[in-house]
Amino acid sequence: MEDTYFISREGNFEAIVRSEKDLCLVLLGGTADTNQAGELHDIIEKGYLTGKKAFNYIIDLEKLRYVSSTGIGILIGMRNDAKEFVAIASASERMKKNLSTHGLIQIGPDVSYIQEYDSLKDALKAKGASTIFTDISINLKMGLVEGIEYDHREQTILKAYLPRASKEEVYKELKKMAGYEKEIYVDEKNVSDEINVPSERKYAVVIFRFLKEAFKRANLYGENKFDDDYLEITAKELTENAVMWGYKGRRDGVINCRYSLDNERLVIHYTDWGAGYSPSSIETLKDLIGFRTAGEGLNRLQGLFDDPIRPLGPAPEMSNKTNDFIAKNLKGFTPGKGTRVTLVKYLVLT
Known about the structure:
Elements lengths: L3 E4 L5 E8 L2 E10 L1 H14 L8 E12 L1 H13 L4 E4 L3 H8 L14 E3 L2 H7 L4 H12 L10 H9 L5 H10 L1 H7 L9 E5 L5 H14 L10 H19 L7 E8 L3 E8 L6 H11 L6 H7 L17 H10 L9 E8 L4
């Protein structure tokens, strides 16, 4: 099969898929959000996930900055359909942590888990690829679009949703969001327990900041606790679910995030007033993105939180703060049944 070159229509994701005999190599770079990962899935499913377990897989992740739950689902599909193995190469510690939340990387000999290699060359050599195939693959990888890192996590998160923006443009966009940042803080010492944002994926950066302050207040943030990597995953997956499932991509809705804290636990409620959760809506999403694993986003978060995570509908009545937000920012908004997702993290008693 000839090499397949794929560039996302959103401009910051690139993949090269190529094969030698029964070995399928996938080189990834940039940011794989739901749309990009869904397109990549279509390519791999049509050419390689044949249902006959005809291929083994190596996925190189060195230049991949972020992968959504849809992308995680692709790895699950490869693992389930592989002839003998799925291996990943060159994964950063952040990416390993990302994959481990879904149980895809685990120490031990169990072959049902994805295997790890420090470099693409090591993986190809271990799996018997020819020298020519290896050399060409390494050269192709060098040309992939690279995930962009900044010093501040907020800039990094926002860049994933504005792939063509320069560093200066990202900074300007963050300044525009400063109004939402102000809503997080009641004063210099106290943090609001509720925030509202528009139904756009880029506002995951605001939710990230809000959750960070909530976890700090609960003394659950920091080293060996709930860190920035976990907060980024949580903010992105919750926002992705609300925008893509609840509002079907519409940007004229509102998303509310609030929390409560007592002596035992931190409880986070994430609510949209979109179409509402139902099995039929899951099927619609599967049809929309051409992907067979629906609801992986919440399953992915299950490993980070303590109680079972279940989206429930209809959503509760809007708070005064949410009603005020709608009156100021949204014209002609008609709420639907809506969905609320509740996350629970028990406090660490010392």
